[in-house]
Amino acid sequence: MPLDRTCLPFAAPNARFAAASGSGGPSSPAPGNTAEESQAARALASRVDEELRAARGTLDRLLAVPGTRSVENTLTLYDEILLHLDAAGHEPGLLERVHPDASVRKVAEQKTQEVDRFATELSLNREVYEALKSIDTSAADETTGFYMKKTLRDYRRAGVDRDEATRQRIQALSEELTLIGQEFARNIQSDARSVHVEPSALDGLPQDYVRAHPAGEDGRVEITTDYPDCVPFMSYSKSGSAREALYRAFRNRGYPKNLEVLDRMLARRHEFAQLLGYPSWAAYITENKMIGSSDAAREFIERIARIAADRGQRDYATLLECKRRHDPSAAHVADWEKEYYEESVKASEYEFDSQSVRPYFAYARVKRGILDLTAKMFGVEYRRVADAPVWSPEVETYDVYEGGERVGRFHLDMHPRADKYKHAAQFTIVNGVAGKQLPEAALICNFPGRDPDDAGLMEHSDVVTFFHEFGHLLHTIFAGRQPWIGVSGISTEWDFVEAPSQMLEEWARDASVLQTFALHQDTGEPIPTELVDKMRRAAEFGKGAFVRQQMFYAMLSLHMYDRDPQGLDTTALVREMQEKYSMYSYVPDTHFQCSFGHLDGYSAIYYTYMWSLVISKDLFSRFDPANLLEPGVAGTYRRTVLAAGGSAPAAQLVENFLGRPYAFDAYESWLNRD
Q1: Is the pLDDT of residue 14 over 80?
Q2: One domain, residues 148 and 203
Q3: Within 13 A of 8's CA, how many CA atoms are on the CB side?
Q4: Quick one: how many helices (H) and strands (E) in the chain?
Q5: Same domain, yes or no: 413 and 532
Q6: Are residues 86 and 229 in the same domain?
Q7: Could you tell me the pTM of the whole model?
Q8: What is the pLDDT of residues 96-129, one digit of tens each?
């Protein structure tokens, strides 16, 4: 008899990935094997099928409830359906992006499609909607009342109250969009490009990077578009032509395949929105966010662009002046030159060399430091699980304890490999529910330090990224004690999702925090306060240009979806938006949109990163910058914001923590600070 997860006091986290350990045995074929389904692939399919059967059985029970509908006899069963869908959907959603076995990735894609199909059917099931709608929640607690209100709204937004023909077309579009999104992501994930350059192009790179990139038989050096290769090369290589070649390779990932895939994505989403009575997908997708409408999103982007305009111009002028010291005839700074000249300005104007901090940021110490300080801040303990079944031998697993009680689990998959997700992200595996199951999540990154003889010296920007993604992970873990899965985990409005992770970045810039783990790889001495101060002052440079670049991405994202896409030239739109909002001109024959993965997941709402940054700066204003390791405020923040999950509107959660509504003041102060 299949195991019913909802009957367990807690679902055991290590029940997952049981046949996907990647140990190299018969159940784990060599990466890329497509000859036949592996044991791991079959086991994944079986787990998902079991959860879908349980979801369908629970749906039948819900529809068969006699008499008056109530929270106890209907909402409880509905939430149980979502619990099974949560178990069925998150695991394949992760494994299709990270598993080294091609047959597992293929099966994971297929199972994601099946789960999405069932979820869409559920969202269009009028009987379920009417059953939920008839529940009297006047005596329910506040969280349950909010859950019901949000659920009924989402049903209406899904089209449940439309005629049968419309619902059938919505179902078909939803299924097609799942396939399109997978194809778009797959084309990016599998397109690892490289350039071959003369060894002299490594001039300016740190010695550990040079040693890791020996010349091949042809006397040339291969540089890939993976982040550990690309980011340092674009920042430090003295060869402008080599940087341009790598930039073009990076900006053309996914091209040309994703041009057509993106066109289909835009067309289907536009049709979807119009079926539901919206003028565009942007109008539809922004309606249930904090911002409320696509017009408000456009106004927000324009407002931020205006605020940053003068500072952006000054930043650009400084870069151009720096470039002219090398090339007096220079008339502009190209997009592939900005990182290099930013480093030059930091060295000349701020007496800061970014390479000087790398010896303090060995990957293993950074990891240990983040674990130690967040454990102290939030009153938890992380225990390594040495024998946990995982999808790759490179993955580390930790259980989270509080007061001796296990409260969650997370996995760290932190280095690049073939056919793995190319960016940095947190993936939920299980959303926790009080008394039913523990939260489980994975951190997927692409940091240096994979090889045993590589210390994994990180850029400070890598350290910031680690903090950022760990912020998402903590949000998932701490929000795992809600009574309903429909409001557990990171289920708040999407344009608030980035705020907690962006706020945790502040700890990566504080000297007293860094000195707890940033020890020199040779001397063991902690990073000097003076060096951190220089780093922070140097980091203030370029904020205006950075914000303008973000507004280019945000407006591009919005404009892809706020119009009828028929006949839309997406490359021309990239060029138009970059020329209008970025400080750096469009580079001909590049196709950024083909690797802009957010155009699938975030679609029209990339603005959320800057919207969340406004809120994160306000949240951080409650902490004492002289004592960021003090757990008092962190505990209040955890309780009122993180642990609350999606149990109330995000604006209310922020107000509960700040004691007032959020404001722009802290953000504008940050942007204008020199």
Answers
A1: no
A2: no
A3: 15
A4: 25, 7
A5: yes
A6: no
A7: 0.90
A8: 999 999 999 999 999 999 999 999 999 999 999 9
